Amino acid sequence: MTKRSLQDWASIAEIIGAVAIVLSLIYVAYELRENTRALQATSRQALGDQDLAYFQTLLDPSILAGGMDKKRRGEDLTDLEISQLQERQHLNFRIFEHAYSLYRIGALEEREWERYERVVSINVCTNEMAKGMWPRYEKGFDPEFREVVDSAMADCS
Q1: What DSSP designation does 157 have?
Q2: Which of 12, 70, 89, 148 has the fewest CB atoms within 10 Å of its CB?
Q3: Angle 128-137/110-126 helices, nearest 10 degrees?
Q4: How many CB atoms lie within 10 A of CB 84?
């Protein structure tokens, strides 16, 4: 077995140090990406909360309740009741869009998004108010989310 010189040990230490620096940089990059994702999710949540609070100001709970009751009984709705029920769906789809944006940045698990996506499909295929709302408001939604809704509409049977 040969003895290593001090120079050999210094070279080995230098290589180990270089590897440690590379590993540290990879870890810092990973942590930075995770922190950025968390900041994006937090920002999106704050904006989503503001959006939802604003859209809720457009809804009158008494008109909504009356309209929903009349709809269940199969009675004709007034234009105001229809408008309120469509606004409610608009708010609902803003929540779906928010979930989709969280899914896109990795802050919502795929399984959870798939649950939302099923509800989107059910709404656009079976809910008259959602069907009526979408053409009025679709341009105000994120283009990628519009593709999700349009795809769900195309799959209605």
Answers
A1: -
A2: 12
A3: 100
A4: 23
**Three-state SS at 117:** helix
- Which helix (H) or strand (E) element contains residue 26? helix 6-56
The C-alpha angle 79, 139, 118, rounded to 5 degrees, equals 80
CA 11-17-19 angle, to 5 degrees, is 105
What's the maximum distance between 2 C-alpha atoms anywhere in the chain?
Answer: 97
Query: Measured in Å, how far apart are the chain's first and last C-alpha atoms?
Result: 78
Residue 1 pLDDT exceeds 70: no
H or E stretch including 152?
helix 143-154
CA distances 140 to 17, 42, 146, Å, are: 53, 22, 9
Domain borders along the chain are 39-154
Q: How far apart are CA 23 and CA 35, in angstroms?
A: 18
What is the distance between the alpha carbons of residues 48 and 91, in angstroms, rounded to a whole number? 11
Q: What is the pLDDT of residues 88-105, one digit of tens each?
A: 999 999 999 999 999 998
Whether the pTM exceeds 0.70: the reply is: yes
Q: Return the ∠ at Cα 56 (arms to 55 and 58), rounded to 5°.
A: 70
